[in-house]
Known about the structure:
By secondary structure, the chain is an all-alpha fold.
Amino acid sequence: xxxxxxxxxxxxxxxxxxxxxxxxxxxxxxxxxxxxxxxxxxxxxxxxxxxxxxxxxxxxxxxxxxxxxxxxxxxxxxxxxxxxxxxxx
Length: 89
């Protein structure tokens, strides 16, 4: 997922088995630089606007995320909300 390298990095580094995406976002915000958080936001915003390859995201992120949220667009929107909420604290 070269264009979405920050999403891939977040997934491979912060998404441990059994942890929620929300907790992984909080850990990411705590541990990474503002620039890296901004890059993740930018990529998630593009996904929220429908700019992604569905099959690639199913392979990389899993069908469960899509099913849980209804679409990867909805997943990206909730991820953006979590980042915004946690960044304010």
